[in-house]
Amino acid sequence: MKKREVQASVKDERLVLKRRNQMIKGAVTLFKEKGFHRTTTREIARASGFSIGTLYEYIRTKEDVLYLVCDSIYDEVRDQLQQSFDPNQGTLESLRLVIDYYFKVMDELQDEVLVMYQEAKSLSKDALPYVLKKELEMVGMFEDTIRRCVENGELDLTEKQVKIIAHDIFVQGQMWAFRRWVLQKLYTLDEYIELQTDLLLEGIKGSGSK
Amino acid sequence: MKKREVQASVKDERLVLKRRNQMIKGAVTLFKEKGFHRTTTREIARASGFSIGTLYEYIRTKEDVLYLVCDSIYDEVRDQLQQSFDPNQGTLESLRLVIDYYFKVMDELQDEVLVMYQEAKSLSKDALPYVLKKELEMVGMFEDTIRRCVENGELDLTEKQVKIIAHDIFVQGQMWAFRRWVLQKLYTLDEYIELQTDLLLEGIKGSGSK
Amino acid sequence: MKKREVQASVKDERLVLKRRNQMIKGAVTLFKEKGFHRTTTREIARASGFSIGTLYEYIRTKEDVLYLVCDSIYDEVRDQLQQSFDPNQGTLESLRLVIDYYFKVMDELQDEVLVMYQEAKSLSKDALPYVLKKELEMVGMFEDTIRRCVENGELDLTEKQVKIIAHDIFVQGQMWAFRRWVLQKLYTLDEYIELQTDLLLEGIKGSGSK
Amino acid sequence: MKKREVQASVKDERLVLKRRNQMIKGAVTLFKEKGFHRTTTREIARASGFSIGTLYEYIRTKEDVLYLVCDSIYDEVRDQLQQSFDPNQGTLESLRLVIDYYFKVMDELQDEVLVMYQEAKSLSKDALPYVLKKELEMVGMFEDTIRRCVENGELDLTEKQVKIIAHDIFVQGQMWAFRRWVLQKLYTLDEYIELQTDLLLEGIKGSGSK
DNA sequence: AATGAATGAGCCTTCATTCAT
DNA sequence: CATGAATGAAGGCTCATTCAT
């Protein structure tokens, strides 16, 4: 599945990229504040620094903006994560580092994550799969890391266990952003990371299929 | 914090209750399908079995409907859960039962849960706290159960650990509904419960504060 | 082919009729002045004596107004004609009377006729056939009148001749409205009628298929 | 009345002519399909083979395009007719030939005729007279032909009769195009020509002012 | 002379809410 | 209490036209 194309009337691809970045930046700010539905296209245009007419030279419908925003956030998250996955050695220690890094990225991008988490469901049947696929790819990155530990003999897990653990990690990262109204009152980021990681790794170690 | 009052023009309280139940039922069906924003008040009235004029005899704004819906879903979830918490003995086994029961309730009410978590964010600054408070109450029920195990000496956990575990359980239950597009393809409900519970309990046991 | 239904949100049929008549009256005035495309829905609403919101309680799209207008004009023209056709005896004299009457109706309704012929082409593929069918019905009324003369032995014409003559009459009537910018400078209505009728009847008489 | 000037920014007259021809060709195609109002200037530019910016180097407003199109169609029709009028001898036979030729031209150019007939009315008060004048010139060509027959003693008609007959011929030619949805189902072009010509000539002959 | 990105007035349509009956 | 017709602010989107390059 390739990236879904959002049609632009403007030909100059470099310009399209530039304008879309302005657009995404403006839109994210607004979506954070008021959500997708309560944000008007005019507001998006203004926040992006151009007129409503110009906005529509770069998209076809308001939903395109949402798609572009979600797509861009996923890309940003994944790009940031990538670097921590590469040097991964298939040891418990490297798994720990990966989680640590992931949680910190989620903390940094918590506004973006929140937007995506709350607004993605407003995407049409048409666009949603492209975004969900990206989500699965990220979960897959955690699976691979865990699986490598299994291959190395550091862990003893069934495939189903590997998958559920990857999901749990992924969701706990998001949790820090979308339940921040309570979690960030109870814990510092470091505390949260330590508590969750300890709990998880003890759980994993105790769950060997024996 | 008392329940937020939604003003009705109609005096007969029995009638108000009856009409609101019709309303909530109709609205949930619609919100499931198209979300809060895409549902019109006319549609809600029709689905509730009365006219738009009548609808507005029992609420003040469209958002009131959303509040009523969220509030009612929370009540339903909590009521269902309550029974499993009452006989709780403060043993690991009863914790296991509580989790098992909770996940099954989430499975049964997954549509409602979905609606609530996707749409609650559309509540105004005014109404949101009432809903969040209900959520915290539910998390609190898990905390109590765990805490009783600690008091009984079955577990050895700090207060912060107790709290994070309660949140994890709570979120993993939601996840089953929220991420059903992927989880329910990978696991049956029973598998999911078993995997998550094992992982969690192993984690808990391994995390004694020592 | 039944009349094409234009959906209204309002239930009270009597009211729908009343409002639509207001609407048609207002719209015709505007269409006369500026044509369909240059007239806005707000202008139509205002000219009809109600708000834009109310307008849309009685139609679905702007094009519905056009259809309603065209449909109503056809009905008016046909209703007016009907009376002159009924007592028709199948004589040349009664044919003369029918033509005379038709031209006079076209003169009276020339604004409406103009609107209809200039704007009908803006109807969608969907609505056009309903209007064209009405036109054919009117042409058919002339055909019947001529055919009766043939049956009576007053005229000797092939079916193809009957049809072309009916069309010619029909179009010459429209012409009086359509080309009024020139014809009405050259002739009075009575002159026009006499000239055209004489020419036509001589042509018919001379065209006997022998 | 001279030809209405449409201002161009470009000086090179040869180029102006060339570009305008491209433009007219493109526009006619589009107007045929969707009418003047539903066609955008961008579409016209694209269909003409140049950019929107270039389009506006050769016209001032969208309406200019319509004027140019109408003007050009009239010129084309008139140019084609011209040749059949020149050798006209003032006999009934040559009148017959002129009509025959005219109807055939109308058949060939029926798309263009339709466009003109349906869209000319969208011209502004300013431009319309120039187009109507051309129409009158064409009617005048028929008048001349008939008048010559009168002068030759072949026909005995008043001036008013001459004029109405010229109009009838003119309109019957257009009729073949603008009522093609019905006429071209009933008749071949040759049948149509024969029926109309016979009817008309019999009418003319029978209408001698005696 | 040609290009095409930018503009913003203005269009059609929706829908939450009111209020007379 | 119930009804549903009326309202108009507001929203998404288009497109004729301009102007810097």
From TrEMBL, chains A, B, C, D:
Protein name: TetR/AcrR family transcriptional regulator
Source organism of the structure: Mesobacillus zeae
Keyword Repeat: no
Nucleus in keyword set: no
Residue span, HTH tetR-type domain: 17-77
Highest taxon in the source lineage: Bacteria
InterPro entries per UniProt: Homeodomain-like_sf (IPR009057), HTH-type_Tx_Regulator (IPR050624), HTH_TetR (IPR001647), KstR2_TetR_C (IPR041490), Tet_transcr_reg_TetR-rel_C_sf (IPR036271)
Keywords for this protein: DNA-binding, Repressor
Cited Pfam families: TetR_C_24 (PF17932), TetR_N (PF00440)
DNA-binding positions: 40-59
Alphabetized GO MF terms: DNA binding
Matching PANTHER family: ACREF/ENVCD OPERON REPRESSOR-RELATED, ACREF_ENVCD OPERON REPRESSOR-RELATED
